[in-house]
Structure formats: C-alpha cells, structure tokens
Amino acid sequence: xxxxxxxxxxxxxxxxxxxxxxxxxxxxxxxxxxxxxxxxxxxxxxxxxxxxxxxxxxxxxxxxxxxxxxxxxxxxxxxxxxxxxxxxxxxxxxxxxxxxxxxxxxxxxxxxxxxxxxxxxxxxxxxxxxxxxxxxxxxxxxxxxxxxxxxxxxxxxxxxxxxxxxxxxxxxxxxxxxxxxxxxxxxxxxxxxxxxxxxxxxxxxxxxxxxxxxxxxxxxxxxxxxxxxxxxxxxxxxxxxxxxxxxxxxxxxxx
Length: 255
What we know:
The structure is a single chain. The protein is α+β, with helices and mostly antiparallel strands. It has a domain of 145 residues. Helices cover 40% and strands 18% of the residues. It contains nine helices and eleven strands. The chain is globular, with a radius of gyration of 19 Å.
C-alpha cells in the first residue's frame, strides 16, 4: 500500500469519504470555486518558481477563464472577484520569495519505506535556512496558529527528505490578500508516528470505512452522498483513480 500526506489527512478526517475518493473513484461533476482557485494558484506559483512560465498572472487567467463559468460559488462571490484576488496574490509572490533565501528544490518527489507500505510525498519547497527548511503553501481564509506543530504532513516531509525543520507559507485569500510564513519548527517524526502511518496504510486498504462526523463535514465534497440526499448520485461520476507518482522517479534519502 502506498500512502501520501494527502491520503493520510483525508483518511484521518473520515474513512468513508476516503473510500469514496480513493477506492471508489467518485468525483463531483461540478467543482467548487475555492477548490479550483487553490489548485490553479498552486500550479501557477510552482511553474513560476521552476521557471516554466514568465508571466504567472497571464498563465493563471488563461486557466481560470476557461472554467470560471462552470464552478459553484458561495454567496457573494463570482469568477471575476476571485480572479481579482488571485492576481493580487500572484503580484506579491516574486518579492515574498526573495525573503525565503536560496531555493534548493521545487516539487521534488520523495519516497521512503515504512514498516508496512511505502510513503511518497512532494514538498512544495526546500530552502537553505538553518540546515534546510521544508515549506508548503497553504491557501486559506484564516491562519491556524500552531498547525505546523501538529499537522502530520510536515512531519512526513521531514521523514522523506531528512530535512529537520519546516513550516507553512500561508496565502490569506481575502479581499486584500497577504502572504505570511508560519514559525519554523522541528519536523523530525517520532518512531511511534512512523508506526502509526504504517498501521494507517493497512486501514486505508482494508477498512473499516466508517463515517466520522466532525467539523470537516461542512467542507466535504461528499456530504450529499453521506447524508443520503435525494438525487445525490447524480452529482458524481466515476473516474479512474489516478496515481500521480506513476512513472515518476522519486528521490530517496533512506536506504
């Protein structure tokens, strides 16, 4: 079984939702605007940092304008308003990146063996600071203080890369967006955490896939199915579960 930070997070929040996405291959027929905005911003920033594009604003607009009419928006938002916010964010990226120091790697895939299964992950950035720092972009409406200390994602990156410290870059997606760096913390995982990931990889494959009612339900794309809403099946379609690491050579720092 292969485990990634995204899979771990999804399974920890709700095993039933994990099954619908990663095993059953169900995807919403209509995407939420916030999800697509985040994905396109992330893609644009990474391509800019890898020198694959020279005009990030233009690249984002080319992507966004193709899909904005087909997205679901919350009350008070629309495609043009979100595009304006995105362009303000992208305009800040070049100057903000300069504050991070030398960038060593951008989206380099890694893999490492677990006691059971295989761990794969792709940190957004590794920069030269205090012996190396793993950084991950988070596009959010509000900053969760202390997230960098408790979120297993960074500790997984610490295990994969051997880099001892990490943090998040928060892009606050508000009318007047800002970009800020979280505290940089030790991300070296404990032995019991590594064993927990291995055990969870077995549960991801075999179940049980129970419904976990929590705060995250209101943000879950599978909520209509979970609640048994009439006609909910029509909101989803079945698609092949894509392995983003298929054919990709992953770097190893652990033998």
